[in-house]
Write a structure and sequence with these properties.
twelve-stranded antiparallel β-barrel, globular, mainly beta, Porin, 3 helices
């Protein structure tokens, strides 16, 4: 599949979704924090997913479950502080050092700060930063059990189309820059508490990021990958609040590598995935 054909397919998916609805970063951990309406708040979710995608790469195509929880302190004009944790329970034996399935293969935790600036009525710029630790139970990642990174992010919330971006700088045990940039729109549907969200975003990275994911270039093992766009994603998600503090959700997504050199590198892998449609269902709570 060429890059132009891939772009055309993704654009068609987005158009078809918009026609059905007349409308997140992510379907997993949402770093563009929503502002709570009280000083202390908590939220959590658990889901079942058909694949695990991270940093613009398909890591697992077995059935898995992810879990997330956070606690937030809202300091009003001084912003919001949060602590969060995310974990993944994988059915893939390859995700575990002992070859067993249905075990936790990743546990992440971090601290986040976000600040809002009101630009006009219904227009708010959210900016923030996060420090994150990524752990892989039962595995070593180089000389470390922990991958450490810093993140910065922004989103321009408005009634029309919300653009957002997030940069992730991994500094241990290896170094790379990874970005995600996209736009999203949420539409309330005909039932109270029922919302539909379209999220279109790209995965970008520097040459080190590409080499860490895809390995040496096929046929040119000593040359460098370029910096820039790596893959495109389109996610459609529906949320329904079934009670004051409980909701359910479902999502479907399409992912495709559009960087031809990276596509060739993944093709050379034993079990590499260059294009995939995926989905999931889950339940969320907030207090």
């Amino acid at each position: 599949m060429t890059a132009k054909a891939t772009l055309a397919i993704l654009a068609l998916c987005a158009t078809a979704g918009a026609l059905r609805a007349e409308n997140e970063e992510s379907t997993n951990e949402e770093l563009l924090a929503e502002k709570p309406d009280k000083m202390f708040s908590m939220s959590a979710f658990a889901d079942i997913e058909s694949a695990y995608l991270c940093r613009g790469f398909v890591w697992d195509t077995h059935l898995l479950s992810s879990q997330y929880a956070d606690g937030t302190m809202d300091l009003g004009p001084f912003g919001r502080f949060s602590a969060y944790a995310w974990s993944m329970l994988s059915k893939s034996p390859a995700s575990h050092a002992d070859g067993q399935s249905c075990r936790f293969s990743e546990i992440d935790y971090g601290l986040r700060y976000a600040y809002d600036v009101s630009l006009a009525e219904d227009w708010t710029l959210t900016s923030g930063a996060a420090k994150q630790w990524v752990t892989f139970p039962g595995r070593d990642y180089g000389d470390s059990h922990v991958v450490m990174d810093w993140q910065v992010f922004q989103a321009l919330h408005n009634p029309y189309l919300t653009p957002y971006w997030r940069m992730r700088y991994i500094y241990k045990p290896f170094m790379e820059f990874y970005w995600v940039a996209g736009v999203k729109r949420t539409f309330p549907l005909f039932i109270e508490g029922l919302d539909l969200t379209f999220d279109f975003f790209g995965d970008l990275g520097d040459g080190r990021h590409c080499r860490n994911l895809f390995g040496p270039k096929p046929g040119r093992p000593y040359s460098s990958y370029r910096d820039g766009l790596q893959s495109l994603n389109m996610v459609t998600r529906i949320d329904y609040r079934i009670a004051d503090h409980v909701g359910v959700f479902a999502f479907v997504g399409v992912y495709s590598i559009v960087y031809e050199v990276a596509r060739d590198a993944v093709k050379a892998m034993d079990n590499g995935t260059r294009d995939i449609a995926y989905g999931g269902v889950g339940v969320s709570v907030d207090f």
